[in-house]
Amino acid sequence: MSVTEPTVTERETATQPDCWRRAERDARTAYAGGLADALPRPGERVAVTGCGTSWFVAQSYAALREAAGQGETDAFAASAFPVARGYDRVVAVTRSGTTTEVLDLLAELRVRRPGAPVLVLTADPASPVLRAARHVVVLDYADERSVVQTRFATTALAFLRAALAAAGPLPLGVRSLAEAAADAESALARPLDAAVVAAEQWTFLGQGWGHGLALEAALKLREAAGAWTEAYPAMEYRHGPIAVAAPGRVVWSLGELPPGLVDEVRRTGALLVPGDGLDPMAGLVRAQRLAVAVAAARGLDPDRPRHLTRSVVLPQRSA
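^ thats the sequence. predicted structure below, dont judge the formating
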C-alpha cells in the first residue's frame, strides 16, 4: 500500500506549536528591548489592518486587546481603511509584504500623518514593506511556500497575543500561549471525524476574539477545497443563519458555545463539532487540517488552490 506524501500545507500546519513558542519569546524580547516603543501601549487607540487572512487576524487581535482593557482597537481591511480617522498607532499584518492594498495604505498614511507610529508584521525580510514602515517585525521562521496561509497567520497573532500578555493581564479565560501551543499539538494529533470531512456544508462559530478565527476557518475551506462555508458570531447564529443547518451539514465551534445553543443546533440534525476545551487558535489548526482533508476527498490539491496566488499584487494605475 502506497503512503501519500504530506502536502506542503500539511507540513507547514504541523509546525505551528513551535512557531507560537518562538513568537512568544520574540514578543517578550521586543517588549523589553528596542521594539518596546513600536508595540501598542495600554490606553492607545489602535487600528489593525491586513487583507484576507491577515484581516481576520486583525479582527481577532482587536477583540482580544479591547477585552484585555488595553484600549480601543479597530480592525479594517486595508482596502477599506478610514484614513481620515486619528489613531495613536496602526498595526499592519502582511505575510508577503507585497500586497498592493497594504503598501498603498502605508504610503497614504505617510502622506496624511507623517511620523505617526506604524508597526508591520511580515514574513519576508526582503519585501518592499520594510521600506514602507519604520518598525517591522519579521517572522521569517513562519514564512510559507503554500498559497493558503496557515502558520504565518497564527504566528502573527501569537506574537501580538504575547505582546498583550507582556503589557498586562489577558482577559479571564484566555489561556497562556504555552497552553495554546499544547492544545495545538493535541489538535494535530486527533483524528478527524469522517462524517465531518464528508459533509456538504460547514458553518464556523466563535465568540469575542474567536469570531475572527471562525472567519479564517471558513476561508481555509473555501480556499483549499472550494467548499460552501459560513462563519458568524456564536450569538448571531440564531438570527437567521441556523436556517441552513441540516443533516449532512456541520456546525463547528472555535471555543465554547453560549448556553442553549448546543441543544438548538442538535435539534436541526446538523453535526456539531464543539470546542472541546481547546484554545480557539488550536481550534483553527484543527480546521486547517479539515480543509486539507476535504480538498483531498474532492480530488483537489490544497497547495494549488483555484484562482489564487500567494500575494495579490495589482497592476499599477496609469498616471
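The longest helix spans residues 280-297.
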